[in-house]
Specification:
By secondary structure, the chain is an alpha+beta fold. It has 4 helices and 5 strands; from the N terminus they run H-E-E-E-H-H-E-H-E. The radius of gyration is 14 Å and the shape is globular. The site of guanosine-5'-monophosphate has 14 residues, from strand 2.
């Protein structure tokens, strides 16, 4: 899947759409989810143009991957959920329910989260 430069997170990265920023460095931008599913629900995205986790993990440089992982940790720390705990989630593709085609990790916490998967 080719990267869509007009996806909503690309527009946030370019500053064309505002976001509630939590953290930013040369590798990543973290901001609050517009429709939070937990008391803390923050998204971390790489600065590079990667569609999904699959794209990022196979195409990004080692420095980008390390920088991104460190940014996820810094964001969790800034959100105050390291001690209490949090969930990391990255949806990939159709079955994963990925809505925005720019790789992102969800940090969810600030309260006890329910089961990861609903029982069918
Ligand atoms: P996905 O389903 O792709 O893993 O998650 C996309 C997330 O992006 C959703 O949780 C959704 O609420 C969030 N989102 C979509 N559009 C915007 C936006 O314009 N701003 C922010 N801050 N979050 C958004």
């Amino acid at each position: 899947m080719a990267y869509d430069n007009d996806n909503i997170f690309a527009k946030i990265l370019r500053g064309e759409i505002p976001c509630n920023k939590v953290y930013e460095d040369e590798f990543a931008l973290a901001f609050r989810d517009i429709a939070p599913q937990a008391k803390v629900h923050t998204l971390v995205i790489p600065k590079g143009a990667y569609v999904s986790f699959d794209d990022f993990s196979t195409q990004a440089s080692d420095a980008e991957i390390i920088g991104f992982v460190r940014a996820v940790q810094k964001t969790a720390a800034l959100e105050g959920v390291v001690e209490s705990g949090y969930r990391l989630l990255a949806n990939h593709g159709v079955d994963g329910g990925q809505e925005v085609p720019h790789f992102h990790v969800h940090i969810a916490g600030g309260e006890r989260l329910g089961a990861l998967f609903s029982r069918r």
